[in-house]
Amino acid sequence: MRTPRRRHRVLPAVLAVTALIAAVSGCSRAAESTASANDSGPAAELRLGFFPNVTHAPALVGIDEDKKFIAKELGGTKLSTQAFNAGPSAVEALLAGSLDATFIGPNPTINAFTKSNGKAVRLIAGAATGGAQLVVRKEINGPQDLKDKSIATPQLGGTQDVALRAWLAGHGLKVETTGGKDVKIANTENPQTFDAFRTGQLDGGWLPEPWSSRLVLEAGGKVLVDERDLWPGGKFPTTVLIVRTEFAQKHPATVQALLRGHVAATKYLTDSPAEAKKTVNAALGKYAGKPLPEPVLERAFSQISFTTDPAAGTFPKLSKDAVAAGVAKQEFDLKGLVDLAALNNALKAAGLPGVDASGLDGK
Fold it and tell me: I want to staple 100 with a disulfide (CB 3.0 to 4.6 A). Which of 36, 89, 247, 360 is the partner?
């Protein structure tokens, strides 16, 4: 008589476990549904920004119409590109929703993240380190000689602009944004900076490649500061790749395709440098008006390392530099800025080691 009672007690227990499994399964399916609710599949179009500089060589190679590194990976997604002179303009386009992703400098990246309270953009890859210098007239031999001089940067709040202002502040020199006028900073597009320096209207410029090399080799300037000397191991990010958060959520497959193309383009730059230089120079001829003379191209390439690693660990210092430069009022918590999951998937598929977010991925 005990056996039927024992069976009677077991049956409700089995039913309870079954119900629990069903509930957990239902919750799991609901979570999966929520996680994929924003995924609208591959985008019809990817609008990608870049600068016609050697520091953006991975972008120039990636969008090349013959190599098609990015276009091939995008498949049916149309690739539309737009050239910018400096980061703040690209950020404006990105935040306005007229751009989906862009190659850009680290300081405008931080600015876009902070302006949107950490919501609008994600840093998804690196592109280049190095390749920025302060080039001046030959009679200028140190910071003290910069008083009452005019120095150019591509745009207010851009990566080179912040670097110059922070360096000046570190040497006790003030500009308009930091309460003085020891040095005048002229925010000028790179081609105009070259012409103005050559004709004596400017005394120098903190510029990305190839413009720093052009000032040295074609306009008689000399290097006062190589930015690599200001960073441990000489490594600092010059160009990274960012995406609108909303676009990444809606079209993760498109972002993954973009990164596969970016990885392939970067590998081409490092594996086939001689051929890659020709590809980049042809692109500069197309987007900047004319290709570079061979000596300028060689010098520019020698200043840069091309890598998909964004050097995320440098971003807290870059944020501090923006405050020291007077272009930001306070530092912003950068946790959540970096999302390298898709990049590391692309690197793994290419047989390459992954890269680290240095704690800025929000995990």
Answer: 247
In tens, the pLDDT along 244-256 reads: 999 999 999 999 9
| The CATH number fitting domain 45-129+235-349, selected from 1.10.3370.10, 2.60.40.10, 3.40.190.10, 2.40.100.10 | 3.40.190.10
Domain 133-234 has CATH 3.40.190.10: yes
What gap in Å lies between CA 156 and CA 10, rounded to an integer? 74
Give the residue extent of every domain in the chain. Answer: 45-129+235-349, 133-234
Residue 4 has pLDDT above 50, yes or no: no
If you count them, how many residues does the chain have? 363
Contact 164, 199 (CB under 8 A): no
What own/partner pairs with CB < 8 Å and gap ≥ 24 does 193-201 have?
Answer: 193/152, 193/154, 194/218, 194/219, 196/152, 197/135, 197/152, 197/221, 201/150
